[in-house]
Structures are given as C-alpha cells and as structure tokens.
Amino acid sequence: MSTPTTPKIIAKACNACRARKIRCDTGRPRCSTCAAQKRACVYVLEAPRKRPTLAQVEDLRSEVARLEALVAVLRTASPKERDACLQDTAPLARGQEAGAVTQSPPAGAVHANRRASETPATGRGSCAARDSSSQGSLPGRGLDGGGEGEDLAEDDLAEEPDLAPFVAVDEMGKPSSFGPSSALNQLPLGHPHHAGGEQVNDAVRNGLIANAALQRQQEPALAALPHIYGVPTDLALHLLDVHWSKEHHTFPLTYRPALIRDLTTHGPHCSEFLLYAIFARSSRLSDRLDVRDDPADPSTAGRRYFRRCDELLAEQGLLLSPSIPTVTALLLLGSTYNARGGTSRGWLFTGYALRMVFDLGLHLDPREGNHPPEEAEIRRRVFWSAFICDKLQSLYLGRPMTIHLRDAHVSHAFHDTFEEHELWRPQTGCGGGRGSGGGSGARGTVTGAPVLRRPTPIHSVSTFQQFCLLSRIMTQIINRFYVVGASSRNAKAALQEVDDALQSWKQRLPAELACSLPATTTPHTDTGLVATAAAATDQPYPPPNIMSLHAIFHSLVILLHRPFVSDGHLRQTTVPGASWQRCTAAARSITDIGLAYRAAHTLQAAPYILSYALYVACTIHVRNAAAEPRGRAREEQVVLLASSLQCLEELCRANPGVARPVSIIQRLMAIHGLDHTMEETADDAPSAVSLDLKAIYSTFPPNATTSDGGGGGGGWAFRGSNASSNLAPVRGNFVQPTRASEADYGNPARLERLDYFDFQDPLYGHMDGSLSLFFDLCDADFGLPNQG
C-alpha cells in the first residue's frame, strides 16, 4: 500500500513583493529583494479561493432576473401597488441584513410578476416586462394537470424559468430546440443568458410599426404582377383581401408585412405552400364564382387549391423540413378541414404543425438577441396562434391537447400594433362580410349584405392578447374537467378557482374590447327569430373578432359549470342551482352575440368558433325549453333555441362540419317534443325568466342512486356571480325523478333510435376516452365513419 504523498505547494510572492507588485523569486528563507533591502520576508500560504459553482451562478442570475422584473413593475405601478410590492420585499431585506441565506424568490417579485402576467401589454405605453412571467394567468394555485395523480401547480411556473438549457446553438449560430437530456444539445456559443424581464425598446416597436406602414404602401404594386404562383393576380389579391379582413384579426397567424415583402422577393417568410393554403381557406368565404371548380356547386370552392397543397406536400417533402411558413400553412389547412367536417385531415395537419412548433423551438422565448425584432414578433404570433388552435381543436373533437402550460414560455407582448386601430369597414365579395381598411381593394359582388352604420376600430392586437390569456384558462378547464380520469373530488376543488379566473379575465378587459350590443330586439312572428334593430340606432356593432372572443368566453362558462349539473360526467345527486343559472345566462349571451353577428356581418363567412359557441348554447336552450309548460315561458325559451339553431344552419355554408352538431340538436328537440319553429310568438323580445329547476332537472336522465346529497337546490355559491340578479332564486331541494316513460315522449317509436340520448348528454357524456364531445358521439351513435 503506497503512502500518501504531500502535495507540492506552489510558492507565491512574499507579502512585501506582493504589496509593491514586483516580481518575487520566492527564495527561502528570504527572497533576493528582501535580502538586498534587509527587511523581513514573510510568506503567507492561503487555501485557494473556490470558484462559484454553476448552481450558485444560476441562482445569482435568477435573483438578478427577479429583481429586474420587480424594478420593471415598480416603474409603471401606481403608488398603492408600489407600496404593496415594497412591503412584501421588506422581510426578505431584513433577513439579508441579518446574514440570512435563502434561495427562495423574493415575495414581491413573485407577486409583481403574477400581477404583470394577468395584465397583457397593449398599446405604445405598455411594458413587456409585465408579460415576461406570463405563466401564472390564474390567480392562486394553478391547475395545469391531467387526472387525479397530477397536481402540478401553476405557481411553480410563475417564476420565469431558465430556458438556456433548452436552446442549442450549432456551429453556424442557428438555434434549435433540444433539451439538456439530448445528445444533440450544445451550450450556447458566446451568448450569455439573461432570463430577466424584457425591457421594451421603443426603437424596436417604432421600427416594426414603421416597417408595417411602409410595406402596406407597397401592396398596390402587387397588381402589376402577371400572376402569383399561377393564380391570376386579380383573383389572388381578392383571396388575400378576404384573408386579411376575416379571421386574421382573430388569429394573426400570418405576419402581413413579412409575407407581402417576401412574396415578391422570395424571402423566407412566404412560400407557395403557404399562399395556396391561404387561397384554399379564403375560397370558402368568397362569393366569386371563379374560385369554384363547378360554378354551380358552392362545395367545389377552393378545391383546386387544396389539391395543389397536397401536391406541394409530396413534391417538396415539406413534412420533413420544418419552417415557419410550413407551420402556418398546416395550421390554416388543419382548421379549415375541421370546419369543413374533415376532422381526420384537420387533426393530422394540425398535429404536424404542433410538432414543428417544438422542433423549431417556437415554444421558447429566451430573449437572447438571437432573433431580429421582426423574427421574434413572427415567432410569438405563430406560437400563440398554434396554442389557441390546439385548445380549440381539443374542444371540438374531445381529444388530447399537445401544448400544455408547462411547455409555453413565450411572451404575448406583441410590439407591432399597426393594425390595432384600423377601422372595420364593409368589403364586398366575401359572403357579405366586412373587411378592414388597408386592403388592396374590394373585388366581386355580394348579395344582401347589411350596411354597417359607422366604422369601428378593429383592436386586433389587444383582442389577440386577450385570446391568449383566455386560452390559458381554457387549458385549465380541459385539463381539470374533461381529460380522462377527471373526478368530482378534484374538479370541485378547482371549480371556484377557475370560475374566479374567468370572472377576473372579464373584469380586466379593456373598455374598448367590451361587447356592447344594440339593446333593441324584436321577434318575427312568422319564424320566431330575433332580429336586431340596430338600423334604427346609431350604435355600432362590435367588430366580429370581439364578438367571437366574447362568444368563446361564455361557452367556457358553460363548459366549466355544465359537468356538475345532473347528468354531467362530474355530476352531483342534486341540481347545483348556481351552476345551471350560470349556464343559462351564458347561453343567452351567446345567442345574443350570434344574432348581432348575423345582423351586422351575416353568418355566411363567420368563423367556426362561433358555431361551436352556438352549439354549446343550444344544449342549454333545449333543456330549458323542454322544462317549461305550455305558455309564454316556453315560447320565450323556444325562441332562443330556434334563433340559435337558425344561426347554426346559416353557418353551414362556410362551415359544412356544422351539420353534425345541428343534427344532434334537432334530435334532442325531437326527444323532448320540441319544434324548431314556433306556432305562436309573443310580441316582446325574450327576457330572462324564472327557472323551475325541478322541471329542468326532470329532463335529465337519472343517476344510479337517489339521494339528496346534502347539497340542496342552491348548489355552491360562486363569488362574483351575478346570475341571480336577473334570474329567480332557486327553490327547494330536488330528488332524482324516475325515468321518463314512453308515453311522456308521445311517440314510442322515437325511443328506438334515440334512447341513447336519454342517458348521455351529447356534449359532455362520459369522459372515458370513447365519448368526448359532439363529433365523437355523432360518430358512435349516428353510424357515421369514426374520425379517430
């Protein structure tokens, strides 16, 4: 066994030479300098100073980041908010003065970040630092998670994560997304990581806005082109106008300045595949006959563009070479196929796009200066559009989402606000819809388009930012109440919190995004439909993107509360009265929005999200109408149902996939002996009526056991709920009724085919993976080809 050897001590300069900063020969017992000057030569052997570990460095970086975020919030906070933030940080400061060592984040920074994340940046005066920690949009304990076993708190994500390990940079300086466990991960080369709050540079914002204005001035020059990728220029520009004036203001998936510029220069942000995807999507909203393969058949609109997209996918191998234009095109095609009823192709195309989002690292927002301002703006818009499309598709099809909150680390502070204050003006040639200013001109004709009395600002950027925040709450609702394994125990604990988040979102909406509808409504006695008489007033209708935003909000209220009512999959043994009142009020609001949209813009070119909201409202109207006895109250409920159903039928033109939910509602009406037309209609508009919840409850199928459950008819009392202000109070405790007999339905033969619906709600049903939402139920019960 070898004896340990004493490590060799490396000699250092003596104290005298070190103080004078001269060379020392380290001679012993005295160096030559000290011997010549006849002074004492003293050597001090010290242990080498330890270098800080990587963990300590990262802790310090995180600390600096949190303090920078706090300072950014303090700059724009009110005096009251500033005092609260400083008061929260006082205990931490005292602990540090006493020598306390802590690695926990400052409380003030966390609270400030949470407040900042709940208030999106809008306009020139906003600070993106308010959005740098946008992971905690729900107040209190977050709810991201799947079934019972996953209780991931969103507060764990409120702190800005360190994204450096997830961004790999190759030798050419190109960033890519590989996690730290990947063998392909490389440390960033020469780019120190700064995870702090992003400081908005006014020069960057002004540069983006100026560039957008300059590019808009260049658009008329496109008319001089002989064709655009084989499409006649006049037709191509018309389809682009339809695209810019329709869903672009709800989902700014395409960045207009870069696409138009690169269309002529063949730059990286425009491709033939992307343009043909836009043409295919816009064709279904256009009245021009030259977009159809058969001028007499509207269903052939855009068919040639869909075929060309399939050819380009095969010829260019686009699925194997991810790029932002390809992601954008696949998302456009996926949502278009879903609206047309081609759910399999829509599901697959959207799935390809979402995989590319991760492959391109669009879900990361490291803010390291790797991307020019325009590139960063494009990446943010594409990511959040993909995030929203993912959640909406999950609602439409009842299938798992791909991007979870824990995967989303991208700010929704958009700096190009050029389109924010554009005016919403009439445009022809696109199904009677409306267009925004700045297009290259209206082409084609329109039949029966209503006249908008006064143009209104479109507010596209702030509307999209609010949609981003709402989609985060949408994710929580899906994860907690609709995934496989959702249980009543876990869902009840989250119900109040998510409801508070929805109400907080509504209260925080800027005034310009309020959905103020004309108040005068009159029913038609021949059809029972409600027509809005805004022509007699000077009040303008909100733009369609704002109407769609509010329609989705109200549908989320129903989706949140509906599972807890009777035959919902998280049902209780008694009717939670507050939940049903919230559902009824939300359904009425959706119908009002649908009718206003119909009066202002027509439904021939309305988006599919409005169809989904109206379908959700119909499932509530059916129950209310079936519960009312013959008389005025029943007529009022049937008017709401008939109006919503008529809107759905009109939406089938641009969205053929709406035919499926329409058939479901019609079958539910047949079960309960309802007719979608009224024999008689009251002279007044429908108004909120007292709800006999016992009668409504009798329309639901019974549970296996009969029990009062101790909940009472009032259910839970929700904070901030004003449903009871315009609805009668809930009366009494209700016991489960027995199953309705065949005689109750009037026609015994009706039960042979529709008996299944007496046990399953067509929207919510059992969440066991086999039945999710109306598409899956439609496939299973109607004998249609299963799309899964």
From TrEMBL:
Q: Which PANTHER family match?
A: TY1 ENHANCER ACTIVATOR, ZN(2)-C6 FUNGAL-TYPE DOMAIN-CONTAINING PROTEIN
Which terms are listed as keywords in the entry? DNA-binding, Metal-binding, Nucleus, Transcription, Transcription regulation, Zinc
List GO molecular-function terms, semicolon-separated: DNA binding; DNA-binding transcription factor activity, RNA polymerase II-specific; zinc ion binding
Where are the stretches annotated Disordered?
A: 96-153, 170-198
Q: What is its main location?
A: nucleus
One term under GO cellular component: nucleus
Q: Which residues form the Zn(2)-C6 fungal-type domain?
A: 13-43
This protein is called Nitrogen assimilation transcription factor nirA
Keyword Acyltransferase applies: no
Any idea where this protein resides?
Answer: Nucleus
Q: Which organism is it from?
A: Niveomyces insectorum RCEF 264
